[in-house]
Design goal:
about 400 residues; mainly beta; five-stranded antiparallel β-sheet; 28 strands; about 5% helix; about 40% strand; elongated
Length: about 400
């Protein structure tokens, strides 16, 4: 569960790129179709809110957590019938494989973002001996085993994980039908108490967007609210469809980036020019979040992002090269400006022979001509001509 509050690290998409979540709205993994899909619902009482809004890379999706309505992370743990496996990132409903998993298993496994959204936790069965183990992962997919899950006597069968606003990592044990807290550094589990209902293997759990109400969807398709002080399930809230995991849709406190962008060799107003802003991991350069903004006549822009940690900020626009500002603290609502170099006709972030070819094909054309290419009109005057070649 990703808890959203000012000063806490979390990932999100641009506010305008999705519908705002209703109060208490969740997503569930619908395992009825093939591949699995994601559908919205409210848990109290259980009510489906509409059709599928995203499709996963395959089947056997055994855990999800969300950073926005159709963005977040999930893992697929079984290759049965050729279904793809691995740790995935989803952004706006589009899935990208981050890394392979240490073990594959058709069993249910827990999965959650940490409370601050800076890392992932999940459980898998495997290793020697073959027991259920706790793993952590960076948001770019570097996986580390924490250790075998243990309560000091046995290895609990943790089939669902959830991180609360209290900073605790909770797990649901389907053998003992109990709620447990888990030390994220040692994998040691401490019983909270019996849940009081049969859990079953295909169980999902997550806190609501406030991080204070823990909900569970069981193997039998029933939903409950769980008391995190006693472990006890409240009255049944409804009957779900077949699901393997649930996740709350977060309500975001977005951070604001402002700045001024200079577009080299652009001869007309900058008003209306779109820029792409990428938040990049300071270590490996992977994209943490992407958003867009529109310049005004002075080149000024305002954008909102969800990530509040330190990231490199890349700014790019169509036929200009990307400029990267290193080590920007997004929690401070920073100002990030850039001066962009012109000439990237094919938008591959380099100026080379392919850009020359693209400009040549459009040479002599004007706006409205069949061969006119706006990306080759480097100075923006509505004509691809000698002035554009001089820029390239």
């Amino acid at each position: 569960m990703l808890i959203v509050r000012v000063g806490t690290v979390f990932i999100a998409s641009l506010l305008a790129s999705f519908a705002m979540a209703q109060s208490g709205e969740f997503m569930l993994v619908d395992i009825s179709p093939s591949p699995d899909t994601m559908r919205p619902f409210t848990p109290d009482p259980f009510t489906l809110q509409g059709p599928a809004e995203a499709t996963f890379a395959g089947n056997f999706i055994r855990g999800i957590d969300l950073t926005a309505r159709t963005s977040g992370y999930y893992f697929a743990t079984s290759a049965i019938s050729g279904s793809p496996t691995g740790l995935y990132k989803m952004e706006g409903g589009t899935s990208t494989l981050l890394s392979a998993l240490p073990f594959l298993s058709s069993a249910e496994n827990g999965f959650t973002l940490s409370t601050d959204g800076s890392s992932l936790f999940f459980t898998l069965v495997g290793g020697t001996p073959s027991v259920r183990r706790l793993f952590t992962s960076t948001l770019s997919g570097t996986i580390t085993e924490v250790g075998p899950l243990s309560d000091g006597a046995v290895a609990p069968s943790i089939v669902a994980l959830a991180a609360g606003a209290d900073g605790m990592l909770y797990g649901i044990d389907d053998v003992g039908d109990r709620l447990m807290t888990i030390n994220p550094s040692t994998a040691i589990c401490t019983p909270v108490g019996p849940i009081g209902v049969s859990v079953g293997a295909l169980t999902g759990a997550d806190f609501d967007a406030s991080g204070t109400k823990l909900y569970m969807s069981t193997n039998s398709g029933r939903t409950y609210q769980i008391n995190t002080s006693t472990g006890a399930a409240g009255p049944q809230l409804g009957q779900t469809i077949s699901t393997s995991s649930i996740a709350a849709i977060p309500n975001r406190n977005l951070q604001t980036i402002t700045g001024t962008v200079t577009l080299n060799d652009w001869s007309v107003s900058r008003a209306g020019v779109s820029i792409k802003i990428e938040l990049l991991d300071t270590g490996n350069g992977s994209v943490l979040e992407t958003t867009t903004a529109t310049l005004d006549a002075n080149g000024a822009y305002t954008a909102q992002v969800g990530f509040t940690g330190i990231a490199n900020v890349g700014i790019k626009s169509s036929h200009w090269l990307r400029k990267v500002a290193p080590n920007v603290d997004l929690s401070t609502n920073p100002s990030v400006g850039a001066t962009l170099t012109n000439g990237d006709v094919n938008d591959d972030n380099e100026v080379g022979p392919n850009d020359f070819s693209g400009l040549s094909l459009a040479f002599g054309s004007f706006t409205g001509d069949p061969n006119f290419n706006a990306e080759a009109d480097l100075n923006g005057d509505g004509e691809v001509g000698p002035a554009d070649f001089s820029i390239l």
